[in-house]
Design a protein that fits this description.
- This protein has about 150 residues and is of the alpha+beta class.
- The chain has one domain (about 10-145): Archaeosine Trna-guanine Transglycosylase, Chain: A, domain 4 (Roll).
- It is about 20% helix and about 35% strand.
- The chain is built from 4 helices and 6 strands, in the order βαβββααββα.
- A 6-stranded mixed β-sheet has the order 2-5-4-3-1-6, sandwiched between helices.
- Strand 3 and strand 4 form a beta hairpin.
- The longest helix has 8 residues, at about 20-25.
Length: about 150
């Protein structure tokens, strides 16, 4: 069956993220992910694609809130949850008028990590993010989408 973006579920946000930040999300230390490009479609879940050297989806989590604001407002509201220094934040958002904060919850690690060739026809890693059909990661999302199920 070929997955399409018009699945009954909203799409999943596939985030490219450095391994150290992916791990911080998975252990619950980082609960906000920042992006220079606003997320325009409603999403409930995101998949964490850990960049090199891992090069795989290492986990999934819920997106409980998406906030689009000027960077100074994002800093005020996310500085304790985003695991980034003020200097790193300012460098990341330099020249950017509007940014996006994704508030994350219920992170669950993928065992084993899922390579992109197993997800949706071997897609390429996104520069920042891309949308995937829910069905492309349905097995990985089962534990957080249906809390009564365990996905161990």
């Amino acid at each position: 069956m070929t997955a399409t973006l018009d699945d009954a579920q909203p799409p999943v946000l596939l985030l490219s993220i450095h391994p150290v930040y992916a791990e911080a999300i998975l252990i619950g230390k980082k609960t906000v992910e920042l992006r220079r490009t606003p997320v325009r479609r409603p999403v409930k879940y995101c998949a964490l694609y850990s960049t090199a050297p891992v090069k795989a989806i290492v986990g999934v989590c819920r997106v409980v809130l998406t906030v689009t604001s000027p960077p100074p407002d994002l800093w005020r509201s996310t500085r304790t949850q985003s695991c980034i220094s003020r200097r790193g934040f300012d460098k990341y958002f330099e020249g950017c008028a509007i940014g996006c904060a994704l508030y994350l919850r219920d992170a669950e690690r993928c065992y084993p990590p899922v390579t992109l060739d197993r997800v949706s026809g071997g897609i390429r890693p996104p520069q920042s993010f891309r949308y995937l059909p829910y069905s492309a990661l349905e097995n990985q999302l089962a534990g957080i989408a249906n809390p009564e199920r365990t996905n161990k």
